[in-house]
Design a protein that fits this description.
The chain has one helix at about 10-20; strands at about 1-5, 25-30, 40-45, 50-55, 55-60, 70, 75-80, 90-95, 100-105, 110-115, 125-130, 140-145, 150-155, 155-160, 170-175, 185-190, 195-200, 205-210, 215-220, 230-240, 245-250, 260-265, 275, 285-290, 295, 305, 315, 325-335, 335-340, 345-350, 355, 380-385, 390-395, 400, 400-405, 410-415, 420. The protein has about 425 residues and is mainly β. A hairpin with a 5-residue loop joins strand 20 and strand 21.
C-alpha cells in the first residue's frame, strides 16, 4: 500500500497543503468569450445540467467547463400552429434529468413553455397562452421535487402543472391596474416545499403570493397593519408555511441610493421585524438552505453567507477575484453546492468543504464517513482531520478538486489505485 502522511511523504503533502492554503470554495468554471449574460442555470446532478445564455441553450456534463449548444427552432418544435417566421425568446430552462427539461420564454409574442424528452434535440410546446393584460413572457419555472408539481409565472400570472408538465392551469392572476404594484419575477421553495413568488411589491403593497393546500392552490396572504413595510420587496422566500424573509429596498424612487434591509415574518406577512440592516444585507437575492444558513447574492461580485438566520453576512472565499461579474442567477444542486451565472457570461461553482469524519470505518468511498454524506468527486474540496475514529483509506480510484490534510492525519492509498487532485 502507498501511505500518504507527513513523515514519510512530506513532499507530496507539501504540494497538497500548498494547493489548499486559500481554502477557496468558489471558483470560475467558464467565461463566455462573447460575454453573453447567463439567464438561468438548472443541473440534474453536480456536474450535469443546462445553462441558458441570453440567446442560446447549452448542455454541460463537466460542471460548465465545456458546453454543447442546442437549437430551438420551428424544425425541431411542434405542438401548436406556429407561424413560420416565429422566434422563441429563451428566458430559462428547468432540467428534471438529462433527457427531460422545460424551456420557457416567449413564442410568437405569447408566454410559452416547451418540453423536451430527448435531451433538447426536439421540443413540444406544452403552454402557448394568450397574454393577459400587461402579462410578460414566462419569466420563471420551477420543479418541486417533493410533490412533483411544476410552477411557472409571468409578471402577473402563476401556472401549475400536476402531470409532469403536459397540462398547465392558470391558478392565479393579479391585475396590475389595481395599482398596488404587484409584478411577479421569480419562484422560490421553502424548506417544507412551500412555493412563494418574489413579486416586486411597491408602495404599501399588502400581499404575499404563495402556495396553499400542499401546493394545490395559489393565492396570497393579505395583511393590513397600520404601517406596512414601504418599498420594493426585492426577493422573498418562505422557509415554512408561516415564516418568510424578504429584502426590502426602502429607497425605491429613481435616482436614490439603494437602502436594503432584511425583514422577517412568522405570521404569514401580518407583521414584519427587522433582521439586518443595509450594507451587510444582500441587495438582490438570497437562499436559505436551513433555518439558519443562507447565501446572499449582491449587485457586485460578492457572494455572502449567514449561519445565524440572517443576522450577520460574511463574504464567501473565491478564487479569481479579478474575474468580476454581476450575479444574474443561481442554482442550488443541494445544501452544499450551487452555481452562479453572471451578466457577462461567467459561470461559478461553490462547493462546501467535505470533512472526513471516519465514523463507520476507514473506507474513503463510504458516504457515511463524510460530513456531506457523499463521496468526494472531481469538484469536491476535501479536508482530512486528525484524531478521527478511523483513518481514511482509498481502495479504488478516487479524485477531488483540492485536499488539505491536517498535521497528524493520515491518508492511505492502496497499491495500484489512482488518486487524482484536479486543481
Amino acid at each position: 500500500m502507498k501511505l500518504f502522511n507527513i513523515k514519510e511523504l512530506a513532499f507530496v503533502i507539501f504540494l497538497i497543503l500548498l494547493s489548499a492554503t486559500s481554502k477557496s470554495q468558489m471558483r470560475v468554471m467558464s467565461q463566455d468569450l462573447q460575454k453573453r449574460a447567463i439567464k438561468s442555470i438548472s443541473f440534474f446532478n453536480t456536474g450535469g445540467g443546462y445553462v441558458c445564455f441570453e440567446d442560446k441553450l447549452a448542455f454541460t456534463s463537466d460542471s460548465g467547463q465545456n458546453f454543447v449548444f442546442k437549437s430551438i427552432n420551428i424544425t425541431n418544435t411542434n405542438g401548436y400552429e406556429i407561424p413560420a417566421n416565429s422566434t422563441f425568446i429563451v428566458n430559462g430552462a428547468e432540467a428534471i434529468n438529462k433527457d427531460t427539461l422545460f424551456v420557457y420564454g416567449l413564442l410568437a409574442s405569447k408566454p410559452s413553455i416547451l418540453k423536451s424528452y430527448d435531451g433538447a434535440h426536439t421540443f413540444e410546446v406544452v403552454l402557448h397562452t394568450s397574454s393577459r393584460a400587461h402579462a410578460s413572457a414566462i419569466t420563471d419555472l420551477k420543479y418541486n421535487k417533493s410533490n412533483q408539481y411544476l410552477y411557472a409565472i409571468t409578471n402577473t400570472q402563476v401556472f401549475l402543472s400536476k402531470d409532469g408538465g403536459s397540462v398547465w392551469e392558470e391558478k392565479f392572476y393579479h391585475d396590475p391596474i389595481r395599482g398596488d404594484g404587484l409584478f411577479m419575477n421569480s419562484i422560490a421553495f421553502g424548506l417544507d416545499s412551500t412555493m412563494s413568488v418574489s413579486a416586486g411589491f411597491v408602495y404599501r403593497s399588502r400581499y404575499n403570493v404563495r402556495s396553499f393546500n400542499n401546493g394545490d392552490s395559489i393565492g396570497f396572504d393579505r395583511f393590513d397593519p397600520m404601517e406596512p413595510p414601504i418599498g420594493i420587496f426585492e426577493y422573498t422566500q418562505y422557509i415554512n408555511d408561516s415564516t418568510a424573509y424578504t429584502n426590502l429596498n426602502e429607497n425605491w424612487y429613481p435616482g436614490l441610493k439603494e437602502n436594503t434591509k432584511l425583514i422577517k415574518t412568522v405570521d404569514t406577512g401580518k407583521t414584519w421585524t427587522d433582521v439586518a440592516l443595509f450594507d451587510t444585507v444582500p441587495s438582490r437575492k438570497f437562499h436559505f438552505v436551513t433555518a439558519q444558513k443562507a447565501y446572499g447574492f449582491d449587485t457586485t461580485n460578492t457572494v455572502t453567507i449567514t449561519e445565524n438566520g440572517g443576522l450577520n453576512w460574511v463574504p464567501v472565499k473565491q478564487d479569481s477575484l479579478d474575474v468580476s461579474d454581476l450575479v444574474e442567477c443561481f442554482y442550488f444542486v443541494d445544501e452544499h453546492t450551487f452555481y452562479t451565472g453572471g451578466r457577462n457570461g461567467v459561470l461559478k461553482l461553490y462547493v462546501a468543504i467535505n470533512y472526513w469524519l471516519g465514523t463507520e470505518d476507514d473506507n474513503w468511498h463510504n458516504p457515511n464517513n463524510w460530513s456531506k454524506r457523499e463521496v468526494p468527486m472531481e469538484t469536491s474540496i476535501v479536508k482530512i482531520n486528525a484524531n478521527t475514529s478511523h483513518n481514511a483509506v482509498i481502495k479504488q480510484n478516487a479524485s477531488c478538486y483540492n485536499i488539505e490534510i491536517q498535521q497528524g492525519a493520515t491518508l492511505t492509498v492502496a497499491a495500484g489505485v489512482s488518486f487524482k487532485i484536479t486543481k
